[in-house]
Amino acid sequence: MEFGGDLIYVGKTEEDEIPEEDDIEEQIEESSPQNGDEETCCLDILDTAGQEEYSSLRDAYMRSGDGFFIVYSIVSRASFDEAVAIFSLVQNLANSENSAAILCGNKCDLEDQRVVTYEEGQQVADKLGIPFCETSAKTGTRVKEAFEKLVLEIPTHKSTQKIVMLGSGAVGKSALTIRYVSDQFVDNYDPTIEDSYRKMITVKGKKRAAGKGIPGAGNSGSLNSSRRQSRVRSFMSSLSGIFTWGRSWRRRSTTTDDLPVQQQQQQQRGIPNRRASAPPRRTHAKNCNKNIKCKKTDTNVILVSMKDLDQMDNVATGDPVYCDKCQVVLSCVSDTKQDGDKLLWKCEFCGHENVSTEVREEEIPKADTIDYALSAPEPQKEQVAMGAEAEKTEATKPGTTGSGYVVYCLDISGSMGGTTQLPELQAEWKRQRDGNLASGGDQVTRLQAIQEALRRQIERLHLENPERRVIFITFESAVEVYGDCTSDTIQEVPSNIHEEFDPLLSYGEKYSREHHIKPLSESYDKMRTIIDMLSPKGCTSLGPALSVAMGIVNGSVGSEIVLCTDGAPNGGIGSLSSCEVRPGSHFYIKAGEYAKEKNITISILAVEGARTGLEMVSKCAEISGGTINVLNPLEISRQLRLISQNYIIATYVTITLFLHPELEVDDPRFPKGSSKIVKEIGSATKDTDMTFVYKLKNPGKKLDIEKIPFQVSYTLKDGRKMLRTISKSLSTTDCREAMEEAMNVSVVGTAAVQKTAYLASKGDLENARSHLLSNKLMISKGSRNLKQKEEKVAFMEESKTLSNVVNKLHKERKGSSLRACGFSDLDTTVLHQNQAQSSSKLYGASRKMELMKKRMETNQAVSAAYYGIQQM
């Protein structure tokens, strides 16, 4: 349990004026002073997870990046050659021949294995007109120096500079990033994880460096723009076609939201030595916008995270002791005293005088987090039904969390045969990598992209967890259950039951009883063969396929169903045949509630470009605790992997939150005026975070207590029933400045986006918008220390997409042009993802290490398979 700050704010309710246009961050940035020859800024470093897989995040960063850190390994000639091609890619995407970049040869601690000499690296960097450095992430040699060199190359002055780490696989991009932000070395880091790191720095000489090239400022030590452009063109043309220096392609994709080139150029006139790709300098024109009044926000927030539910460090030997009146559990914050053989406890919540003869003073919990075992493990339904035979044949079937069945339900309807243009970033990289300027072959069908994604995913599962059971189902007009893809498990679901939920569930349950699903160690080859043979046809019977899948996994704890589709369901139960009439919409709510009850998680991957009715279909994923994404088909591979990495750690989870009677929950998701909240979570993953906003029941009332207690309890059942209690107390303050100084930005920011997204999803766009704006203002003004500033940058960046969607919907509502059919698929996705926002997304560099330790990949075969990916 974390709090929005170290203090509870009990001051009076106030109003604030907020700019109607969302330019809070810009105004704060413009007012931040810089001193002398030093510049303080936050580096927003994107550690890319590879060149071959498409990533929309890397695409966005490469188009808006301020500096590019291009890495090769001195023990790999191929990575050195690829680094040159990457620089060409950067120049093309930035539409500039003067991009700020550095060439870095990593692993200089492996001198005896060197194949690329220092002189070769320096020579190439000189010809490209960029700095050069050799580093060792393992020893830390010159890592800080390399990053500072790059920062000095960036001509712009901003409070946040975006740095993009680029390079081929296994060159040490992650190791360099982590060494720089935390001064620690990590080995065997999972190469598939793409993440951003925010670090506050102070750089000396930045302002002098920015002045180079300006008449009268002197330009020694740096190539001016025209010399760099000339030398780069000369060097790239000398590579004899190995890497193409081409420009016959569009600058931006249709998904890019950055400013038009012409507008950038107009804003750049008269500014010497400024890259064309750099963001425009801000003007003060926005200061003329009118302000709106809204209630000032505060830090009265509680965050309950599930990430550590599988770690039980303080297991109590006895049973929990409950208050006779309010059912709070005796804890380390309780006020107790021993009276002979009796323990007297005045409940810190309700004030009830409890008397216990079963607990002595030394048995009172001393830690704030305690786990209690309430019941012994329960056998799974299959083991009860099958007896001793089940123990033999189902020995590897999971009885605990995170290892149930994985069911892939794949849409192979006719629309999956439609082609998708290769994203511009990947198309250009493919040309640079292959040395081929021709633009042909830049299209793939949606089905081809998803087939490739499934092949990669089951390969990874096969290497990581060969005993995992994977079930494969396809749907078009017909629904076919392939099971583990061995010959005796393939069946077609009778079409005469496609319209009825219960018969479809029963069919799935019967299938599960009659078929033993083999683990991937036995089914992998046959499953790949079936995936390769698929072809598109028919309509989209998504509802029947989902119903059968839930029936099959019913009774297997911690199972996951992943739906891949590219169109609105139009066959069988759950059909969404028109925009005005949604006869099947209630089905997805029913399916979600059933899945939650049975601890089944449903995730949806929708292909962008076609309307899939996500506003309705997504209810099953939202209720069951799954994820929702609308993606380019080539990014589905990455998302399938992310789903498997965000594994289930606990099932049947229920949270009970106890507040002091003087406090109440202030959140539209929960009953108004309550001091006790019970929330059923169902299956919880390692990224599941719940936030609760609270307030004084009587604002401004003078409290006669120094500290206010809180308690949250989790009840979970993963073969056994456990209870975890977390109890803490906080001091109060009526001083807003003191409250802000003690603010935990990642918690406040997580609560802000979760509540904003919820309000917007319910159509309350006015309050959603003002709530997000007021939190932005408080976080911008109140972030003072290094940790707060890093997390402020993370919050501002991570909330941008939500802010854009809310503002767009707000304008549509004001103009009475909000779609009659509700939100678009992309809007639905953004709102759902932000309702489920994880606080780890808002961590600054100083808090990242606790996550890094959980991101090791010791299976070298998994890493080798990822590095061996070749783009379609």
Automatic annotation (TrEMBL):
> Could you tell me which residues belong to the region Disordered?
1-39, 209-228, 254-286
Q: Which GO terms describe its cellular component?
A: COPII vesicle coat
Give any Pfam family that matches.
Answer: Ras
Q: Which GO terms describe its molecular function?
A: GTP binding; GTPase activity; zinc ion binding
Q: Which InterPro entries match?
A: P-loop_NTPase (IPR027417), Small_GTP-bd (IPR005225), Small_GTPase (IPR001806), Small_GTPase_Ras-type (IPR020849), VWF_A (IPR002035), vWFA_dom_sf (IPR036465), Znf_Sec23_Sec24_sf (IPR036174)
Q: Which GO terms describe its biological process?
A: endoplasmic reticulum to Golgi vesicle-mediated transport; intracellular protein transport; signal transduction
Cited SUPFAM superfamilies: P-loop containing nucleoside triphosphate hydrolases, vWA-like, Zn-finger domain of Sec23/24
Feature: compositional bias, Acidic residues = 14-29
Q: Does the keyword Nucleotide-binding apply?
A: yes
Looking up PROSITE patterns in the UniProt record yields: RAB (PS51419), RAS (PS51421)
Keywords in alphabetical order: GTP-binding, Nucleotide-binding
Protein name in the entry: Circularly permutated Ras protein 1
Q: Can you name the source organism?
A: Magallana gigas (Pacific oyster)
